[in-house]
Description:
The chain is α+β, with helices and mostly antiparallel strands. It is globular and about 90 Å long. The chain has four helices and 18 strands. A hairpin with a 6-residue loop joins strand 9 and strand 10 (251-263). The protein has three domains: 1-64; 66-127; 128-423, Beta Barrel (Porin).
Amino acid sequence: MRGIYSRRTHAEAHRTFGSQTQRTRREDMRNEKLAIKNEQREKNKERRELLTFLFLICYFIFIRFSLFAVDVGLVIDQKVESGNDTRYTGIAIPRITGLVGDNGDFYVSAGFTYQNEPSEFAPELLRTDFNWYSGGVGFTVGRMGYDDPLGYVASGLFDGGRVAFDTDVGSFSAGAWYTGLLYKKRANIEMTENEYAANNTEIDYGDFVNGYFAPRRVLAAVDWEHNGLWEMAVARLSLLGQFDLTEEKVNSQYLVGKIIIPYRAFSFDLGGCFELIEANDKTGSAFVVEASAVWRNAVHYLSLGAKYASGENDTLSAFLPLTTNTQGYILEPKLSNLMMISLDYTARLHETFSAGLYPSYYILTDSGSEGKTLGGEIYAALYWSPVPDVGIILGGGAFLPSLGNFAPDENVKWRVEVNVVLALF
C-alpha cells in the first residue's frame, strides 16, 4: 500500500507541478503581451505627441504668420570641358522659398552633383536659412552665404547665425559659423597638407563620415559697411577669426578692408588684408593687397587690376585663407605666394549676346624660387541667353609657361568648355 500510495502521490504531485508550470508560462506570455502592448501604446502616444507638435508648427507658420507666398524652382547646371582630359560636371539644384509674415522669409535648397572624371556623385544641402528683419535689426540662421570684403579669406556657405543692425554710421553685423557639416568640395578648405589631400580625394562611401565632410573649424566675424562714405564711396571693414577644432591647431585672424570710389563712368577699388597665423606653436604674419580701375558704360566693361599675396620669406609667411579661391581661368593658382596682373573686358553686342576677353600674368612672391614669373594666360568667352531662363557659355583659353622664367619648357595648358544653365521654374 505504501508503494502504491507513494506512486500516486508522486504522480499527483507531478501533475500539480506541471499544471503550475503551464500556468506560470501562460502568465509570463500574458505579461509579455501586455508589456508589448504597453510599449506599442507608449510609441503610439509619442507619435501622436510628435504629430501634434508638427501640426502646431505648421499652424504657427501657415496660419499665425500667414505663409502664402511660396515659390519653388529647379536649376540645372551642366558643364563639359576638354583640355588635358575631358570631364563632365552636372548639378541639379531644387529650391523652395517663402515669406513668413511681414518680416521673415526662408530659403531651402539642395544640390546633386555628378562628375565623370573621376566618377563621383555628391548630394548636399545648399543654402537653407531663415531671415527676419524689422526696424533696422535682422538676423539669419541656418546654412547661409558669407563673403569677406575681398572674398579671399572666407567665401561660400557656412552653418551658423548672423545678427545685423543699421545705424547712421553704417551697417554692423556679427556672426559665428561651423564648417564640419559642409560637403568638403563646397567648403574647399585646404589650410594644411592633410586638408589638401582629403579635399582632393574621392568620396569613400564605405567611410562616408570621414570622406565627405569638410574640416572642423569655427569662423567668427564682425563686419561694418557704409554705402555713402564721404557721400560717394562704398567702404567695408571686417575682423575675422578662424579656430581649428582638429589636432593640427592652425588658427588665424584677419583684418580685411575695401573701399570703392566711383567717379562718373569710372570706379577705383583698393583693398587689403592683414593676417596673423598660429601653427605648430609658432606665429607669423601675412598680407594681401589689391587695386583696380574700372570703366563701364551700357555696352563696354573694362577693368585693369593687380593682386599681391605675400609668400614665405625671412619676415613674412605665405598668405593662408580659410577657403581656397583659385584665380584666373586656366592655371587657377591659389592666392598665396602670388602676384597677378589681369585685364577684363566684356562687350554687350546684343541684348542676349556678350563676349569677353580675360588675359592674366602670374608672378611668384616668395624668396626661394629661382624663377619668379610663372607665365601668362588668355581666356575668351561668349555668353548667350536666348530667353531669361537659359544661359549658354562657350569659353576657351591657354596658359603659356614660355612667357615666364619659372618653367619655360613646360607644355602649354589649354581648355575649351561649354556651360549650359537651365532655370526650369
